[in-house]
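Memo to structure team: turn this sequence into structure tokens by end of day. - J.P.
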Amino acid sequence: MKLFYKTLLLCVFVSAGTAQTTVDNVIVAGEKRADAGTQAQKNIERVADQAADLLAEYKSVSKEVEGLKVYNGLIKKQLDNQLAEMQAINNSMQNISLIERQIVPLMIKMIDSLEQFIELDIPFLLEERTDRISNLRSMMERSDVAQSEKFRRVLESYEIEADYGRTIEAYKGTADVSGQIRDVNFFRVGRISLAYQTPDGNYSGAWDQGQNSYVELPSSEFKSHIKAGLKVAKKEVAPDLLVIPVQAAVEVK
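Reply from structure team:
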């Protein structure tokens, strides 16, 4: 009876130890699950934070994309406008090339006409005027002078010739006086009169367009008038009424 009691007691002790081990295991397992849950929560929070960051980045990138779309649209419009301008410039250049091809013959004709006009005009400043024509012809052959500059120079020459018809002038030159080439003082009034007088005043004359030569004038009649005209042209005296030799009108039948 005593032996049985001991055996039973041992069994009870063994059962009690086993129960204690199970509880500890449960506690440990619970702690592990708690730790795992905590870690999982942290992982969830980290993923949530990453998702929030990605969402914010997506929104930021979306705004940038929208901005780039607007910018690209503006750039496209600018490029389209530039292409249109380039096309317009190209068309203008083609038109300019056409105009240049047409204007060169026109300028040559204008120079020819001006040269012919000078040849038919009274022969004042003849060397200066013919040199101007020669310079124009030389200029037309130069490739380093723009067509616009050439045209400007041609028009300028026309303006100079036009101004001669509205001015009076005194200048020195030479003339055939009584069969001799003499130094004289020329007096020009527009294109209606070109007279001369020798420095000593002994000879006076005027250009006769009909005879295409100079003719002598009576010194007694024109000496003082031409002398006065020379002073007015040189601005040595105030302008005054002048008597000038003018070719008589010829009746055309």
